[in-house]
């Protein structure tokens, strides 16, 4: 099974010229495309410029967010100032969209909004990278209930015939960003089993097994290889480390 590596550039780099420079360096990385599929998620404003000018086959593109409502083709007004629809993202050259990322949830996105976003992404024929993860851990195991509810609600609009088009990204929020470190391999393995069990209870065994589980949160060139070796982990969401071409290159080459 090919591993999927998602580069989440977040709100970086500072301008289009830098974004083009970064992608020019990234696209020179040589890696085994039989083993790895790479999805680059630049800020939406850079996406069309980067994705449409890319002629190769080694990289695919994703957006970091989307609005949950459909683009109304006729009659309606599309009155949603400042928003970008799934159709627009697809037209810009993307095939994936991050849905429910922790940093969006931190500024008010809830499970229902994320569920509707996933619905729109699927409707437009793209793959939602559905992000879930507990905010903190507690000794009583409340975090497991939190995560289960988050998964159930965020997947609530995925129809059975769409399950195979989705991916789930497990990102424990307490491991994301500067000053944090990745979860231990043992803990990730336990969480993979837990997440798989929830997916099985929603969609049944065979569909649930078709949803790749990715891990995110302080992935770097030192830990990526071991995390990818964990049974059941089929990819990584890489934030900070995806902005440093040498580090990102090592992550891809290590696979
Ligand atoms: P990080 O971010 O790798 O910088 O921790 C991961 C993410 O995109 O959430």
Describe it for me?
With 255 residues, the protein is of the alpha/beta class. It is 36% helix and 16% strand. It has ten helices and eight strands. The protein has helices spanning 16-26, 47-53, 86-91, 102-105, 111-123, 142-154, 185-203, 205-209, 224-228, 245-253, and strands at residues 3-8, 36-41, 59-63, 96-99, 127-132, 167-170, 213-216, 233-238. It has an eight-stranded parallel barrel. α5 packs parallel to α6. The N and C termini lie close together (12 Å). The protein binds 2-phosphoglycolic acid. 2-phosphoglycolic acid binds next to β8.
Give a brief description.
36% of the residues lie in helices and 16% in strands. The protein is built from ten helices and eight strands. It has an eight-stranded parallel β-barrel.
